[in-house]
Design goal:
Helix content: 10-25%
Mean pLDDT: 93
Distance between the termini: 91 Å
Structural class: alpha/beta
Shape: flat
Number of domains: 3
CATH class of the largest domain: Mainly Beta
Number of helices: 4
Low-confidence stretches: none
CATH architecture of the largest domain: 3 Solenoid
CATH topology of the largest domain: UDP N-Acetylglucosamine Acyltransferase, domain 1
Number of strands: 40
Largest sheet: 12 strands, mixed
CATH superfamily of the largest domain: Hexapeptide repeat proteins
Radius of gyration: 26 Å
Length: 343
């Protein structure tokens, strides 16, 4: 079992120890679940009360405060905890066993890089390219002319459709589909005629895409996920969408076709965006926000239809009073009616 002193961990994360720096740490855990030997972290003030009851041997926090436990003080506890976790997580899937499983089917024209791992019952299509050190776990399908960069990790049941392009260090979680046809139809009387989707999906470096997320190929040209974007499970990204650098899309977000999303944008869970709008850099959309028009950079919006967040909060507060206001209006109407009858 790996073991590190608190002083060693402080050097790793660039923090300062308050308390006994010789405490030995053998694991990591959340503040409520931790046991003796674990280190935990405190980044949200609503968990302050758990400091008195946690069984962790030490805490990573932004201040030494009144903690009864030794503390590593850092500016960003969440980031520091991430670095510590990496010491205890061990090997990533596929690191130990490299090479190609005998049940994998790889077309002769496919180009497979050095030190690649391809698991059981995978299919790699004609002229597909797999970069060095990439790990492809069982039951993955990479179709013709698709390309996967170096140091990628594809979990089971991932599908990468033909001609789509995946950059380096990309993680695709189980069941996600890259490059399904965009949802495009033209009316022919009452019939819906399918519009051929001849574009591709391009995913740049250091992107992570969650389980069962779908990213549709462009009608023409490209659906683009830019460098460093992080996309949660069960997200739908339609054809010709652009997601900017380091943007975050939480679970069940839906982005309609040809919408352009800037860099460092946050779309909270179940946010929905109509098509053909622009979302500026650094925008934040609250959970279940319904965005029906373009949003300028640096705004926070929420509600349906999405409005500036402080305005939306006032509207929600008034909604809670609607039964009371309706009763008051009804009483006032009756009084006016009584007064009119007395004339």
């Amino acid at each position: 079992m790996a073991s590190y002193s608190l002083a060693e961990l402080a050097r790793l994360v660039g923090g300062e120890v308050f308390g006994d720096a010789s405490v030995e740490i053998t694991g990591v855990a959340g503040i409520k679940e931790a046991h003796e030997g674990d280190i935990t972290f405190l980044a949200n003030p609503k968990y302050d009360s758990y400091l008195a009851t946690t069984r962790a041997s030490a805490v990573i926090a932004a201040g030494n405060g009144e903690s009864p436990k030794p503390v590593i003080k850092v500016a960003n506890p969440h980031l520091a905890f991430l670095k510590v976790i990496s010491l205890f997580t061990g090997e990533t899937p596929g690191q130990r066993l490299r090479g190609v499983h005998p049940t994998a089917m790889i077309e002769a024209s496919a180009a497979i890089g050095a030190d690649v791992s391809i698991g059981a019952y995978c299919y790699i299509g004609a002229n597909a390219r797999i970069g060095d050190r990439t790990t492809i776990l069982p039951l993955v399908c990479v179709l013709d002319d698709a390309s996967i960069g170096a140091d990628c990790l594809l979990y089971p049941h991932v599908t990468v459709r033909e001609r789509c392009e995946i950059g380096d260090r990309v993680i695709l979680h189980a069941g996600c589909v890259i490059g399904a046809d965009g949802f495009g139809y033209a009316k022919d009387g009452e019939a819906n005629r399918k519009i051929p989707q001849i574009g591709v999906v391009r995913i740049e470096d250091d992107v992570e895409i969650g389980a069962n997320t779908t990213i549709d190929r462009a009608t023409t040209e490209v659906t683009l996920i830019k460098r460093g974007a992080k996309i949660d499970n069960l997200v739908q990204i339609a054809h010709n969408v652009v997601i900017g650098e380091h943007s975050i899309l939480a679970a069940q977000v839906g982005v309609s076709g040809s919408t352009l999303i800037g860099k460092n944008v946050t779309l909270a869970g179940q946010a929905g965006l109509v098509g053909h709008i622009n979302i500026g850099d650094n925008v934040m959309v609250g959970a279940q926000g319904g965005v029906t028009k373009s949003v300028p950079a640096n705004m926070k919006v929420s509600g349906y239809p999405a409005r500036e967040h402080s305005c939306a909060r006032k509207i929600y507060a008034l909604w809670a009073r609607l039964p009371e206001l309706f009763r008051d209006v009804k009483e006032l109407a009756k009084r006016v009616e009584d007064l009119e009858k007395r004339k």
